Prior knowledge:
The structure is a single chain. The N and C termini lie far apart (53 Å). This protein has 14 helices and 21 strands. A 7-stranded antiparallel β-sheet has the order 9-10-15-14-13-11-12. Strands 2-1-5-4 form a 4-stranded mixed β-sheet.
Amino acid sequence: MKISSINRRSFKHIIAAVQGTKYAARYGISDKMSIEDYQKKVPIIAYSDISRYITEIMNGKSNILSNDPVVAFAMTSGTTAKSKIIPHTRKSLEEYSKIERKLFYNFIKKHPLIFRGKIVILVGKAKNYETAKGINVGAISGIMASHIPAIFKNCIIGNPQQIDQIDESYRLEAISKMAKEQDVRLILSSSSAYLMDFINITLQSVSSKSIKDIWPNLCLVCYPTGGSAIFHEEFLSSLLPSVKTWDTGFGASEGYLSTSINVKEPIGIPNCLQYFLEFKREDGQVFLLEQVEYNVPYNLIISSINGLLRYEMNDIVVFENKNNKKAMRYVGRSNYEISIVGERLTENQIIESVRWSQGVTGIKIPEFYFLAPAPRSNPPYSYSFIISTDDVRKLRDNVVGHFVNLVDRKLGEINVNYYNSRKITKLLGFPKIKIISSKEYGFLKNSFYHKSRFNGQGKETRLVQINN
């Protein structure tokens, strides 16, 4: 089937699911609408544009974004300070599950012996809390853990619902204890950070330097290899020297957007049967899948049956020709943020934490530099600030220490992922702050190359200047 035909089919399927809802009525959406009319009438949106509609859904109202009842909310911390809450219907979870099943069947095809042993699954909590109407709010990875095909469930170590009840600070350790005496052959993780932490916990518990001493038949680890995973690639390779890597594909709280075709890289076939996909070029022009060019960066825009219509993901993708198919490579985030272990700090969050700490301590800070940890360093990773001030009277060690505590505390308050990375997984260490004079700072400005903005996930040591 041609890409253009697939686009029309997915578009009609999505419009049928949303027509008559409060949001669709606002823009005159109906099943008679063409793709061209849809693009003219319906605006490209960010999460903030629909957050009030989602609040209505969480409060129990129906037919707001989709005609189907919402059965779960996926929670993620995106490029805003607060967590994003994405409503999912039974049908939207079924679409997600279809792609998840493809992943497992590919495992059977390529590595059939895996299923003679056991599988470890590392995911977020399916239930962080409930809405007033009793609907679970949790990580999409945890929600989907209960949708794994039934024929594989006997292979999985632990019951996903029972594991979900374990306190997050102890969960990886608990799974490690369950798995230690088992014949583990596959580890499937929703993030490279989870995987790295799990491997470290397991090795430390038996005082071993090789995971093969514990699980000699482990042959495959599967996790998202894009974005911040590049930070962990070398470290994981050193821990798992003879274990193959398989990319999970491009999954997000909003949807499962590509199916992996390269086991080691974040590149896959767009899931355009499940989602209506559009792509915005840097100049603002929007293209359909059949119109995109190779090696050109695009912002990804999705429409889905759970009622996200022309929703801009803030993810950058490029297209490559793989065996005469258009394959989509995940490049990184389009918003100005940095992420080493999934904390996804934005410029605004960093500036806010320093400004607030400045107000409490009274130190005058005209500007500062922000440094990411080196990609080949080992956890816990520590961010560093270099701050300029001529207020020499306040450069005492106790004031500097207080300033560090304040910055760390504020970042934890405004970014839940930062807090979890610091306090629960402990993959992030205490931030380092050096306060220097304006003269020294000026020397640094003349000596160091720096980038003026974050460009997505942290991939390198860099010095980033942010005017305060």
